[in-house]
Amino acid sequence: EMDPVERAFQERVDAGQKIEPKEWMPEGYRKTLVRQISQHAHSEIVGQLPEGNWISRAPTLERKAILLAKVQDEAGHGLYLYCAAETLGISRDQMYEQLHSGKAKYSSIFNYPTLTWADIGAIGWLVDGAAIMNQVPLQRCSYGPYARAMVRICKEESFHQRQGYDALMRMVKGTPAQKAMVQDALNRWWWPSLMMFGPSDDASVHSAQSMAWKIKQNSNDELRQKFVDQTVPQAKYLGLTVPDPDLKWNEEKGGHDFGEPDWEEFFNVIAGNGPCNAERLDARKKAWNDGAWFRDGLTAHAEKAADRRAA
Ligand code: ACO
């Protein structure tokens, strides 16, 4: 039997009401949100690294300005999301500590390298495309601050998706070498993009409870299916081949059948053993350590100012 306070909470969630900071919530609800929102924030912040790799090498001034704006947007998304998580009683320093110690995850996708300029287009098209598919329903999340943060984030993500597709469109109309570069990027980013939605539903430990609390609105496999159905025609339009021999339209279900991602690779990457995990974490830890003098200076200044006021 559910206790009456918890039942009243669940009824509010079922009725589509937003839960706001400092209102009563089950401890598990709070913990799940802290986990998901902080991991989401970390993903935005770490997600700047693979693209940042190409800011100094963008092919034109216009592409550079677009990429700079996009990477700055990701930083903004991270800060929004850290604020949303802070409303649940965790500090930003604690969240950073969890990232740096490897306790908190961030999206598997950012542990793959960006080898060519086409990878930047592919990230916009596929990675931001997958992010939108996942984040649009999060605008209806039961927790108010997370839901509201998603509104603006989704608008910016759609710009990111369009700029990626536009960059690739330009390249596939270019030389055969440029078109081959785009195909190669799709070959490398397709499966990792499908993995962004998380493990298959039968292996997803949190989905059932998160859906009951309306933190998640859809299961991992539902969103993965929608992403495949949306993206396959876009690949065709670019004249590219999706690297999945099992991919085919299924008239009866009104969607595509497709192959299984390599789940062993996925679990390996989220355990910290992907191609760039060490490099990504080292970059974040270095940024934190490089900022120590500044944090110390701020603290020293605040203490002196407090002393002066007391004197
Ligand atoms: N990368 C890293 N870890 C993942 C991924 C992934 N692609 N998918 C699942 N996991 C982790 C989960 O965090 C969980 O581990 P934990 O218990 O240590 O937190 C474990 O794998 C089991 O997965 P699920 O039970 O399915 O977890 P959950 O219900 O949290 O669903 C999902 C995973 C869909 C990623 C969810 O957390 C979510 O929607 N997060 C918000 C969106 C987000 O984080 N986007 C970041 C990527 S894109 C971007 O914004 C730039």
UniProtKB/TrEMBL annotation:
<dbReference type="Pfam" id="PF05138">
    <property type="entry name" value="PaaA_PaaC"/>
</dbReference>
<dbReference type="InterPro" id="IPR009078">
    <property type="entry name" value="Ferritin-like_SF"/>
</dbReference>
<dbReference type="GO" id="GO:0097266">
    <property type="term" value="F:phenylacetyl-CoA 1,2-epoxidase activity"/>
</dbReference>
<dbReference type="InterPro" id="IPR011881">
    <property type="entry name" value="PaaA"/>
</dbReference>
<dbReference type="InterPro" id="IPR052703">
    <property type="entry name" value="Aromatic_CoA_ox/epox"/>
</dbReference>
<keyword id="KW-0560">Oxidoreductase</keyword>
<protein>
    <submittedName>
        <fullName>1,2-phenylacetyl-CoA epoxidase subunit A</fullName>
        <ecNumber>1.14.13.149</ecNumber>
    </submittedName>
</protein>
<dbReference type="InterPro" id="IPR007814">
    <property type="entry name" value="PaaA_PaaC"/>
</dbReference>
<dbReference type="InterPro" id="IPR012347">
    <property type="entry name" value="Ferritin-like"/>
</dbReference>
